[in-house]
């Protein structure tokens, strides 16, 4: 006999778990993006090529992260246990690509934002017409991430050394980070 919905206890796979998973992974991604940009700016400085664009994108990522931080507190969603790793890995990725040069820093942005677009679109497809607050926020943030990708491409991302290889590796890393942050 099944329990009435109002008295049924939570079970793995419930809608609440899926929403928490979305919030957790989106916060982790936005946190990682802030760390990538911090690493790039640490190497490039404030006056380096594309530093103004990177600083502007970093501010938007901070706003995105602040939103998901607040949502996590409000909805009692635990952060990923991988957050300390994303702190170091994100900064290192940003610093490494900036060390290669401004085009490589932009190639990193283009690759990351391409995967974030894919990830956010999958979430939007999964939500359908439900969950209007989260859906509207994800859609707005996705649009801003696409702007970042377009800025990066217009700023010479594809002229980075070994662009195709670098982009593919960064995109694969993003996909792995997304899946890991959902679960851990």
Describe the structure.
This protein is an all-alpha fold and 184 residues long. It is globular.
What descriptive keywords fit this protein?
mainly alpha, disordered N terminus
How many β-strand stretches?
0
Largest sheet: none
CA-CA gap between termini: 33 Å
Q: List SSEs in N-to-C order.
A: HHHHHH
- Radius of gyration using CA atoms only: 18 Å
Low-confidence stretches: 1-13
Output the structural class: mainly alpha
Beta-strand share of residues: under 5%
Q: How are the elements arranged and paired?
A:
Blueprint: H1 15-44, H2 51-75, H3 83-100, H4 102-127, H5 132-154, H6 163-183
Write a brief structural summary:
The chain is mostly helical. 78% of the residues lie in helices and 0% in strands. It is built from six helices and no strands.
